[in-house]
Amino acid sequence: MFKRSELDKRPQVEIFVDGVAVAARQGDTVSAALLASGRDVRRSTAVSGAPRLPYCMMGVCFDCLVTIDGVGNRQGCLVPVAEGMQIEIQKGKREIGK
Amino acid sequence: MTMAPKREAYDVVVIGAGPAGLAAAATSAEAGLSTLLLDENIGPGGQVFRAIASTPVTERAQLGADYWMGADLVQALRASSAEVIQRATVWSLDRNLEIGVSIGSASAFARARRVILATGALERPFPIPGWTLPGVMTAGAAQTMLKSSGLVPDGRTVIAGQGPLLWLLAAQILRLGGRIDHILDTTERGNYFAALPHALAFLTSPYFAKGLSMMREVRAKVQVISGVTELAAAGDGQLASVSYVAGGKRETIPADLLLLHQGVVPNVNLAMAAGVEHRWDELQLCWSPVLDASGTSSVAGIAIAGDGAGIGGATAAVVRGRIAARAAVEALAPAAAAKLAPMATLRTDLAKAERGRAFLDTLFRPAKQFRIPAGDTIVCRCEEVTAKDILDAVAIGATGPNQLKAYRRTGMGPCQGRLCGLTVTELMAQARAKSPQEIGYYRLRAPVKPITLAELAAVPKSEDDVKAVVRG
Amino acid sequence: MSGEYDVAVVGGGLLGSAIAWGLGRLGKSVAVLDEGDITKRASRANFALVWVQSKGLGMPAYTVWTVRASEAWSRLASELKQQTGLDVSLQQNGGFHLTLGEDEFGQRTELVKRMHNQAGAADYRMEMLPASEVKKALPLIGPEVSGGSYCPLDGHVNSLRTFRAFHTGFKVFGIDYFPERPVSAITKSGGEFRLTTPKGELRAAKVVLAAGNANQTLAPMVGLYAPMGPTRGQIVVTERTMPFLPHPLTTIRQTDEGTVMIGDSKEDEVDDRTLKHSISAVMADRAQRMFPHLARLNVVRSWAGIRVMPQDGFPIYDQSETHPGAFVACCHSGVTLASNHAFEIARMVAQGALEPELVGAFSASRFGGSGAANNSGY
Fold it and tell me: What ipTM describes this predicted complex?
């Protein structure tokens, strides 16, 4: 859906999406890194289970909700990636322990 | 890396580091007022100057001169004594000018003698069939990815809607080697005539030449379909096609990515939760705060600058930020105001920056069918409530958005009405043959952004607070 | 809105709606007069418990009335479901009041004792349980929980959906719902009541005042008395989560949608537009001490609501001697008592007289002479 500009010279950051290593760039938000990964990163909603991807990328729509380092329902578009970060695509409602 | 505000109280707290907030904070600090700037994003710039200090798109021509104006603002801010905290989410503001802010999963409170809200705008909801499908995003979202991560569309891409941002985005995508298959222009034909009386001001405004050359640049490379009167996204769990009607003819085109845009509207949540009075703006079709010429709102001590004060664009936002900050300086440290640009000069700057706006507002006034959906089209994305659900609620007696919430949970999800509020108001107004002003809006309260229960639990409490909760 | 109705119900909240729905169910022609979109509505702010334990200390009749309501709720839920297709998610598998630390446990134990000692109180099997027993039913409780009281009759419901179901049911019964018509005056002439609203006058043979705290000003217009003492309560609510809480608590419950509601405060304050975060903080702190897992959940909204509260805390149901056909109904527990309002109070209003054996104890005559226009105890 998206590709990276050839001019992008930022250093790589390795994150893990559902356990799989994904190359992101320093300064990416989690949502941008997920969309750039080419993987199926659709979450499903807490109401009907419908699949969604980020919509606004500016912190207002909450369609980018994702589990980051064990904490559910984070707004992926507001969180910068960090080396070794563990991302889980959220399916349905958040679990209370996460 | 994350840190709480250094002081408990400031002369001025500015919320939002877009054009208005950057200018306001720098101006206030320059006059010697203790100034705190709080911003939710990773870096300063807001949406229009997104990632101005970190963008990988360093070839200046690709993002354009208007974007790089933001670098000067950031530089001025950094040269000032203003305290700046990024990734700081303000979740509460009250009439006592107490600000609750979440930083690194902990909340802090700061008091201000003056608050300048520069929370900007968000894209107007574009509730067409299928707009919740993965693969449908706002144009602003694509622009954010482009500016902050150098990402551009590479699948079959359709851009639909209207307004200056749409053309700017298209030009930027093309310059970075991205792909756009079609542009579906939804500008209503009648708007061209309606906008004519404002044309002279527009022709002599800076928008004109820039806009024209950008449209030419895009049209040379992309098929543009004008006069689009219907629009729908379709696919099974993922966008597969976009269908549209233009000139009475229906077409369906395969697509992987649909970028929607029909202008921006003030981001009202924090201001409304603070009790600031808003009125329905019939031209811009949105809620705008009631403000005086310096941006002062109905709540003593709270001013609003930038697009949150009514859409005016980045240049106007900068001037409005300076005006609001100057007004704060005049009130708190009159002697220091002499250091700043005179109010008369700022007002002249503002008039110049606002030139051409009425033309744009009239020309790009979004068509009814793209604002007021019908049938199974989702209105509230969080709670997945459709237009028909809302009309059913009106039929059993819902008179406004708050009663609707009780019946249908619209606006009760995490976005707190940001993506459905305008649609709900206009849909109910149409169904009840009332004006949007009569219908009203959700009553908003803190927290305007979610905070964890632990964070709320850590807020300082008194014996009386405990007594109000713990009983028999 | 001309025409004549059997009954005009003033107030379209849960209480007025339940009575109006009950009257419609009996075939009466009913008009409901309600306020608009923004007004103090306990029906939109409540905690949605169908609650028995600890109700009625000082008035055994209230305990009996509450138990009756609890027992009738499943019939109400099933009738609403049948009529409107809406499942109000009634769950009555027993509820807890948890205590933190030994002092609270001791205080609660005392309360349970006093309840049991009260003559005439229905035996509703409220009992104290040590933490080890509580943990069997609520495995996620934290180490600070010292125990709690449990009552098998307690439960909860989706109160907003109940509200919607009543209003949906209005259509089916042919009840006319008139929003944006606050009543400013009521007179009786020629055997009928005339109610003044900003959008004209409405006439009805009987009138039921169900306007919450506003009953205090409406009641004297028809020779009734309803002294009210409203308080404010705050509630916070989290995002939707997977089910984790199998029973409702007095201060925490998980809705059928998955959100977790955390209540509530009691403040001498009647402005529902502002919030005191420090009070929400106490609620949040206690909730996370009861269930440590809650700490990481996001709070998505919070609000303040004004309780409908008769001055002594017990319901008022009364009928006018000077204006026969006028009734007043107000109580704090509009959710718990909805079944009684729909079935019992509606029946009595339709018959034209309240039944002393069921609701005689709730006459406003108990407040003594101060303004009480009747002392019938019917």
Answer: 0.98
